[in-house]
Amino acid sequence: MPRSVTKVNGIHYKTKQPVTIHIEHGRIQSLHPLDAEIRQAALPWVAPGLVDLQINGYFGADFNTIPIAEGAVERATRGLWRQGVTTYFPTVITNGDAEIEQAMRSIAAACAADPVSAAAAPGIHLEGPFISPEDGPRGAHDRSFTKAPDWPLFQRWQEAAQGRIKIVTLSPEWPGSAEFIERCVEQGVIVSIGHTAASPEQIAEAVQAGARMSTHLGNGAHLSLPRHPNYIWEQLSRDELAACVIADGFHLPDSVLKVTLRAKGEKALLVSDAVYLSGMEPGLYENHIGGRVVLTPEGRLHLAEHPGLLAGSAQLLPWGISHLLDSGLAELDTAWEMASLRPSALLNLPSQSGLAPGAPADLVLFELKRPQGVKIIQTYKLGERVFDSASPAKEANA
Ligand SMILES: [Zn+2]
Fold first, then answer.
1. How much distance in Å is there from the Cα of 175 to the middle of ligand 1?
2. CB of 263 within 8 A of CB of 255?
3. Which InterPro entries match (predicted)?
4. Using one digit for the tens of pLDDT, what is the confidence trace for 211-266?
5. So what's the pLDDT on residue 306?
6. CA separation (Å) from 4 to 21, 49, 207?
7. Is the domain of 279 the same as that of 261?
8. In this structure, are 38 and 160 located in the same domain?
């Protein structure tokens, strides 16, 4: 149970002023400037908890090895606290119909049995199978399971998920996409365009039908494209679409990140797309998404047979924030909000109000070092300290 009252001191990530945050019943009660005496001390930064819309697994807990192992959701939820992630969307990718249904059932059951996971995972991201079958756009997804959007099938999965599917990544290149998107919107599900080979007209139609996001824009694409028009320009130019990017330094060159950030403004978001190998040792791994994958010592994850094709990311949001800071692509407040308030706002989560009275006390204390970047010191979920770098062993038993 969250402690009834506590307080947290830190340098506000946005105002850069020392503040005390008072917490009551898991919510931020008030913020006050710190008095001069305490200001002398070296304080960590304080910022809203990180929100990741695309997590395939963490530290061996995999949401895409079916059946999902007992305890995987609980382990990922608690492991992610080390990374400052207080909210995440378990992501299930293209697979057989029965396997997806089983995955949905498992995640829903885990959330029903564990209130901590339920609070951390407000929804599931279904990435596929209604994506492009083409090599390149489908990335590491299994071609044999790709198919046109199918509403009755989606309803079966949504039922298995107990209504928890909140994001669907699809390609509008399939016939019937617009109608499917409209029904998702009616059901309050965010439709994201991704793993697509759609024409500009099909993308326009999808936006018209209510698509509001692009999944890891610039990845899950052909290695070569017509200079214009193409589906990347088209999504960049549509102001209705928020764009998720993987800013790990491997998935996109800095020039592409810069253009995406400029084009999307407040609608540019960070995701990790972290796979279950994140946090593991470098090496060769067997993976259900497209066979064998290699995790390099530098943290890059690629298909063993096609080193040019990435197979998801092994780095979490603090790494992406650090990359944006290091490369000069964003200031701290912007980079942090790309990975917290902005995704919260898109999903209409209570955490969207950030460090404000009434907001859930999902907080991160961190240090900023060059060149190592963001180092998480403490993580708070609903006012409870769930990770402390000074006593990580205690957290492991939480
Ligand atoms: Zn993907």
1. 21
2. no
3. Amidohydro-rel, GlcNAc_6-P_deAcase, Metal-dep_hydrolase_composite, Metal_Hydrolase
4. 999 999 999 999 999 999 999 999 999 999 999 999 999 999 999 999 999 999 99
5. 87
6. 14, 19, 45
7. yes
8. no
